[in-house]
Amino acid sequence: MESIKKVSIIINTKDKLSRLRLVLKALECQVDCNTEVIIVFDGCSRETLDGFDAVELSFTPIKVISTKNIGSAAARNRGVMQATGKILIFLDDDRIPVPDFVSLHVAAHAQKCAVLGERMDMYISEEEIEQLYESGAILEDFHGTVIHNAYKAFDSNDTFFRRLMFRIPRNPLLWLMFYTGNVSVEKEDILKVGMFDENFFGWAVEDMELGYRIQREGIKITKNAALKNYHITHGYDPQKRKMEIRRNVQYFINKYRKNLFMKAILHILKIMIVLRVSRRSKMKASLNTG
Hints:
Spore Coat Polysaccharide Biosynthesis Protein SpsA, Chain A; 9 strands; 20% strand; globular; disordered C terminus
């Protein structure tokens, strides 16, 4: 019988310790001798690093520290190079995984593929985050403490558009769904296609561009609606984010400028993502004031 595949969970983080602690606590019941957790600290403050050292966990994460802010693409690549697992799971530092998160990802790799999960959003305050961590309830009552507070993300993998994308036979555009907040891929495959392009910096599309190369390589992209994680929402500067989107999408366009179909898709994508940022910003504001 084939031995259990070793898994590396890669989390890159930038000064979101209160959320990261919850993510790691939710992984405690899932990490065994076949699983390693790699945390890449991307230009984090001394306060974050010292605070992390005080976190008590049932497992010992592997720490990779970059003193400079190198960006998500480069940070994830450092995690990939550190990883020993056959299967790499990319998890954001503010997404709480379901109790069977790791096993669902592993099971999906019975055949060669890249696996996408689903995101739910949690709108909770910093005080509530602290209370949830201190109470330990995240492990004792996952349904009551996490699922109860979650809303289906309007841009998650289960919106109409994304359901439609996966229903189209041999759809060549599934890479548009490739968000690394909840995705897994075999290490040999990500090395084969060249890992994340570190010329992307800031927010957006470095993961989609990797997904494009993965799909172009002939690796099937699948999704599992049961493979959920719960995004603890946070504030951001929408104007800065839109600037990063425009810059990164333009780099994406320039990289594949000879492909006219790709250029058209990316111009549409840029508009869609900018609109999504505006909508999310308004949604969060209404929830905070409502």
